[in-house]
Amino acid sequence: MRLRRSLKAIPLLAILFSALLPLPAQTADQAWLNYQKMNGWTLFPRNIRTLGSGAIEQSAMRELNRGLGNLAGESAAGLSARALESVSGETILGTAEEFRKLRPDVRIPSDLAPGAFWFSRKDSNGKHRLLIVGGDERGVLYGTFNLLRPRDDKGFPLEVRESPAMPIRWVDEWDNIDGSIERGYAGRSIFFDAGHVRPDLTPATEYARLLASIGINGCNLNNVNNASAFFTPAMFKQVARIADAMRPYGVRVSLSADIASPQKIGGLSTFDPLDPTVQKWWSDKVSEIYRLIPDFGGFTVKADSEGQPGPASYGRSPADAANVLAALLAPHNGVVLYRAFVYNHHLDWNDPKADRARAAYDIFHPLDGKFAPNVIIQTKEGPIDFQVREPVSPLFGGIPHTNQAMELQITQEYLGQQRHLVYIAPMWKEVLDFDMRVNGASTPVKQIISGQSFHRPLGGIVGVACVGQNNWLGSPLALANLYAFGRLAWNPDLNPEDIAAEWTRQTISSDAAVVHTVVNMLMKSWPAYENYTGPLGLQTLTDITGSHYGPNVEASERNGWGQWHKADHNGVGFDRTAATGTGFVGQYPPEVAKIYESEATTPDNLLLFFHHVPYTYKLDQPGFGGKTVIQYLYDSHNDGAAQAAQFVTDWQSIQSKLDPALFADVLPRLEYQAGHAIVWRDAVTQYFLKLSGIPDAQGRAGRYPNRLEAEDASLTGYTVIDVNPWEDASHGKAVSCGESARKPAPGGDPAPNSALKGHDLSRAGTAPKESGASAPAATHCSATFTYTGQPGAFNLAVQYFDLPGGSAQFTLSINDRQTDTWSASDHLPSQRPNGDNSTRRIVRNLTLKPGDTIRVNATPDNSDPAALDYIELLPQPAN
Ligand code: GCV
Q: What does the pLDDT read at residue 17?
């Protein structure tokens, strides 16, 4: 017994020990700035100099030298004579002003705006001359990165001139002072740890490099929830170190500000923004910050939202609060990004007029024109919360006299949490291109937020990135989203497919087959995810009060949060029309409202967001095949899961052309996704089959002929349990080993970071209960199945639940011969077996004949009870 314990302690010690070792420093090369990969792409004269001495210009020069370093590292032998010749000459970097002063002999464009650049390559007197000219220092840096970027087959251009589409191009990090990250899926903060700024800020500088390479100029460092802990003198000093680390790449830092800070940490009895003592408190804070960080960007504010306090406590408006802060920041060139994500999360589901989607417009439209010139209203792209598909928020058309920014989410909270491949740029592009038709004129959202449509001085785009210590976003292919965000912020007219190709060339390989395959996978990934999670405007049908990850259809009903789909026995969808629904549709300008008001003209992919229709409603628009809503739900979930499986095959098809480490890193992620897409498919189709009572015309929903259910197996030690929600397990049941030994988290399953967010689970109505097995704890369990089909060769899927807090062990034996063993050691959400952690293991190439026994042996570990759902025999592919 003692021996067993000490043996068990070895891996634990190893984990603890490795946790104490410093992680190897994270660098921008791990993302897309790997000049080794781009070797030889860009040839430029090696004699490089800058006209100015500013830090950002020096960064530009360093960047060229890095690129050159790799070019030179290729050695003369590796370069053709022509290439070597083409790099002789000079490269000159400088701002337009510096050129005018110091090199009046050189002709440059006269009207480069801040951030803009122009570069040109010319032959002069037999020598090459490359000029990189910026409207300011940032422009020089952006031009340099542009020059270093591998291009498509058209080759290296002789002249390029570009300028950013909008002034605000920021990322938001939701980092907490203890180093955790709300909605972060890539480990801990690169900035903070245990109440302090990290001693080594090399990753912060590397992050700034990455951001600058795609034109991002601001980074809001901390979580919008509970931000007051950051507003102490000691913390300001430390944040100044982050600002120093990021400044050389032109990235200004800013902070989320908690409106209640004067009371929470300032010792005042009030936080009323119009109270003079409160204003004095903010004024002192702002002065203190700018003494330390002269180029501080400003404040991001979440107020009166999801438990965060705000001006409403004193009957004040968002404009009152925003303007007080703005007045203090204005002399320093700082701004307030006031978030329009303000809503009541105690809505009454039974009230047919209650609608969370209305909130932002209802609150902010009446305030249009009342905000100070340096306030920007930051609105999430859709009216709910980063769902797999939403219509564009009508607020973009509703405050023409106010500066606006669009908030997008790069971190994949509702989009598979970086475990699923979802390239979001095509969704962002649809949103940016959407024409709001304000006053009956063309007003695409991208032009509204850039300030162009309504002649606003400020505006822009903010991406919630939540990068962490684990390769920035955790999964290598997820980095395409960060890259695409920056490219679209720079130029929203770019095409997501071209951006994907650009990213692939820099990050993976320039090989044509690789670029083709990866771009194809990326472009198909959002539609696939939408298909298997929530098509037709249903939104992501996940556990909205908990993990926001796996399927939980019922969670989006009967809660106060207002993320509802209103499915009943007869129909599905939320009537938001002006005529019979909540009136949300009326918030759009008339031409758009007219489209959404009618079922016939609402795009089918948003139908259920706007309308409640019978399951038998026919989808007549192109691409929807004239199917009924219910049949489309069945089909799309099957198509989506099939597409996810195809990603595995696609990736395997380019194995020989990929870096082996990258191949090996990505493959299991795609395999996992393919398995989890099946969990999604089955959960949603079973749910709607039961609710509607209408069968799947193709007979797939709820029928799994090749499955052997664990609850029907011959069980030793295992107890049959009800899975909650029922649709997350085949037939609602599973078996669990050592149930009574488990120590579920007190109070059930909290939402990740729920304490921070203030999510009120008691109102959720879906707070999970542990299924109450009381059998003595088993230390080993087995489920034995007898094969009764035809003899043949199969792959076999074992569907089990991989719970956190332990690494249960599984083995699979055929006729008592062990054929596979694995441990359930992933870190998936939820403390109980459900769709968050339902996981598929595929054992390949088994031959079976009637009477063979298939046994799954399991050993639970701590809070992981080695729960098992079913096994499934899969036909083997022909090869
Ligand atoms: C930072 C959603 C997320 C929260 C997030 C909130 C917001 O509700 O689940 O984690 O809190 O949006 O954007 O403020």
A: 44
Question: What is the crossing angle of helices 202-213 and 55-73, to 10°?
Answer: 90
Reported as a single tens digit per residue, the pLDDT across 837-872 is: 999 999 999 999 999 999 999 999 999 999 999 999
Query: 3-state DSSP call for residue 225?
Result: coil
Q: What is the Cα gyration radius of the chain?
A: 28
Q: Atom 8 in ligand 1: which residue has the minimum CA distance?
A: 385
Q: Which two tokens stand for residue 510?
A: 């320039």
Ligand 1 midpoint to CA 413 (Å): 9
Instruction: Please indicate whether residue 385 is annotated as part of the active site.
Output: yes
What's the CA gap between 763 and 558, in Å, rounded? 9
Residues with CB under 6 A from ligand 1: 174, 182-183, 223-225, 302, 306, 341, 385, 413, 757
Q: Are the C-beta atoms of residues 492 and 446 closer than 8 Å to each other?
A: yes
Closest ligand 1 atom to 464 CA: 13
Contact (Cβ atoms closer than 8 angstroms) between residue 53 and residue 230? no
Q: Is 85 an active-site residue?
A: no
Catalytic residue among 175, 182, 272, 306: 306
Give dist(CA 879, CA 361) in Å, integer: 57
- For the segment 707-765, what is each residue's pLDDT rounded down to a tens digit? 999 999 999 999 999 999 999 999 999 999 976 444 554 444 443 333 223 332 222 33
Measure Cα distances from 409 to 182, 225, 515 in Å.
12, 16, 25
Neighbours of 802 (CB within 10 A): 25
- Locate the domains of the chain by residue range: 9-162, 168-495, 508-574+612-703, 707-875
pLDDT in tens, 703-716: 999 999 999 999 99
Atom of ligand 1 nearest to the CA of 225: 1
For 831, the 3-state DSSP assignment is coil
What CATH number has the domain spanning 9-162? 3.30.379.10
Among candidate residues 385, 530, 696, 709, the one labeled active-site is 385
Q: How far is the centre of ligand 1, averaged over its atoms, from the C-alpha of 168 (Å)?
A: 21
Mean pLDDT (whole number) for 54-71? 85
Confidence of residue 151 (pLDDT cuts 50, 70, 90): confident
Does CATH place domain 168-495 in 3.40.50.2300? no
In the reported structure, the alpha carbon of residue 200 is separated from the centroid of ligand 1 by a whole-number distance in angstroms of: 29
815-848 residues labelled b (16+ CB within 10 A) or e (exposed): eeeeebebebeeebbbbbbbbbbbbbbebeebeb
Separation between Cα atoms, residue 127 and residue 482, nearest integer Å: 39
> Which member of 63, 355, 413, 869 is catalytic?
413
Q: How far apart are the CA of 753 and the centre of ligand 1, in A? A: 10
757 CA to centre of ligand 1 in angstroms: 7
Nearest to 463 by CA among 439, 481, 436: 481
What is the Å distance from ligand 1's center to 409 Cα? 10
> CA–CA distance from 593 to each of 134, 368, 440, 540, 586 (Å)?
43, 20, 12, 24, 6
Question: What are the residues whose beta carbons fall under 8 Å from the beta carbon of 224, sequence distance 6 or more?
Answer: 172, 174, 256, 300, 301, 302, 308, 339
How many Å apart are CA 15 and CA 636, to the nearest integer?
Answer: 42
Q: What is the pTM of this model?
A: 0.93
Tens digits of residue pLDDT in 84-123: 445 678 899 999 999 999 999 999 999 999 999 999 988 7
Q: Phi and psi dihedrals of 855, rounded to 5?
A: -125, 135
413 is catalytic: yes
Residue keyed to tokens 């920035």:
472
Of all protein residues, the one whose alpha carbon is nearest to atom 12 of ligand 1 is: 385
Tally of CB atoms within 10 A around 859: 20
The fold for domain 707-875 equals Jelly Rolls (2.60.120)
Confidence of residue 52 (pLDDT cuts 50, 70, 90): very high
Domain 508-574+612-703 class in CATH: alpha beta
Q: What pLDDT score does 47 carry?
A: 86
Which residue has the CA at smallest separation from atom 13 of ligand 1?
341
| β-pair partners for 451 | none
